[in-house]
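Just scan this pair:

***
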Amino acid sequence: MGFLDSTLDINLVTPLNQLGYGIAGINIMDSLIKAGHSVSLSLLGQPQVPHRYTESFNAAINNGKTPNFEAPCIRIWHQHDMSLFVGNGTKIGFPIFELDRLTDIEIHHISYPDKIFVCSKWAKEVVVRELENKTKKENVADNVYVIPLGVDREIFKENISPKKETVFFNCGKWEKRKGHDVLHEAFAKAFTPEDDVELWMMCENPFFDNEKNFDWEREYRGSKLGDKIRIIPRQPTQTEVHEIMSQTDCGVFPSRGEGWNLELLEMMSCGKHVIATDYSAHTEFCNSDNCRLVSVEETEPAKDDVWFFGQGEWAKIEDDQIDQIAKHMKEIHELKQKDELRINQEGIETAKKFSWTHTAEEIINAITEEERSSE
């Protein structure tokens, strides 16, 4: 059975908002419906749905009033909360996680669904290893599927920045995991006050209070090149996010661990150059052709005493990695000065492959695998 051969009823449990899980949920819902499938939606939290998804949202909410209880159910949510599904059909957990080890509670929860969807080969290796080591489940890999997330190229279109200065950009809520503790240091190593550069940080963390967000902002404003750093508020929709991205030249993502990194792929889709650590889930789409990679030699306990307390490992960022980031940033600026900074065409071609339509296709293929194999 191919993706277009028949339609399916699918129960979907997900948030719909402008955070990572919510963006994935909105686009997966929309792509499945546009492909002709019947989605019955059960919401996690209050919805924040841009107008362009209203038709799909209304259809899914209406279907959710009378779901097919025998249909498969996909729960797009954290790996420590996988117990509640709709109906009696195949239970599919779709967690997005950043560390290389799972806690006992997380393993307990992801061992419950019949199938697990993950975003990357890196994440599949983690799930298979953890479940095989700590449970008695057999053939774990057979029930773990790589379902890459996507990017909406109707929104994230390519362009060349109209600005004279070289603008570097980071987007993602304030966290040590995101490398925000070292990015301003790399920026200061790369440039002097005389260089025509800026660093834009769009990193407001909705889970922090105003004081904690301000602590991060103050660290950047008070850094060596703080006068060249611009703090940008969180944008309400992806359209506004694109408007910011379109004015930049290069995305810098010194992350210690990622479950996917939507913003990195969105920057690629905009034709922007990107700098990123060669580690964790974004290795699913980052390579030396489309990204300036920062090599990672070691991992270390994931600990920030806010969200992570040493329960797993993440990339170790030391002086060598900071120097690599600074070197890449300098190279981008030199190209811009020479008027030789071209659109990242390799990044655009990558983004075309990782569409939300492709995500929906992979979901249907995974759901119908057993039926297709028996034909």
